[in-house]
Specification:
The chain is 3% helix and 39% strand. By secondary structure, the protein is mainly beta. It has a six-stranded mixed sheet, with no helix packed on it. The chain has a four-stranded antiparallel sheet with strand order 5-4-9-10, with no helix packed on it. The chain has a two-stranded antiparallel sheet with strand order 3-6. The N and C termini lie far apart (41 Å).
Length: 162
């Protein structure tokens, strides 16, 4: 069994989400998810796919690929997946802290839903196995990193006292 899980997620970066010219790579990179190897051995990520819920206009959703993972994640290490195409130089220092490895979604758009909440799903197609699933509620606070508590991603209590 793979010992990886969604550890943190920043679905609602500070600042305006949309501008006439679209979001900049720096704005997109401020939205990210952390995948942590919580085990004692390295985990082969090849074939593992990260999904999220893509909502349709009728209120239903389908699972949408965020990123297919590759490589190996050493024990105790964190892989951060930023929205956008990069390069890594566009990532603000505050959005670099706390991670060991970095990927981009390779999409020129935000990924994570704010108005309906969302779910991070790690799936292994070869074994047809859900490795991990963690959800957060709608309207997460702006600029706040959601922390894993059980199967939920939640804002620290202090985030609501601003």
């Amino acid at each position: 069994m793979k010992t990886i899980r969604t550890n943190q997620l920043k679905p609602n970066p500070a600042g305006k989400d949309r501008t006439r010219s679209g979001a900049s790579e720096t704005q997109l990179a401020a939205e990210w998810v952390d995948i942590k190897n919580t085990g004692r051995i390295d985990v082969d990520l090849n074939g593992v796919t990260l999904f999220h819920k893509a909502f349709k206009r009728d209120g239903t959703f389908e699972w949408e690929v965020v990123r297919r993972l590759t490589g190996t994640l050493p024990a105790g290490k964190v892989l951060r997946i930023h929205s956008g195409k990069g390069p890594y130089s566009v990532v603000r220092d505050e959005d670099k802290a706390g991670s060991d490895y970095y990927f981009f979604t390779e999409e020129s758009r935000y990924i994570w839903n704010n108005d309906r909440g969302d779910t991070s799903l790690l799936w292994e197609p070869a074994s047809k196995t859900t490795i991990d699933e963690a959800a957060y509620d709608s309207n997460p606070p702006e600029g706040v990193i959601l922390q894993r508590v059980g199967d939920k991603l939640v804002a620290p209590v202090a985030a609501y006292r601003r």
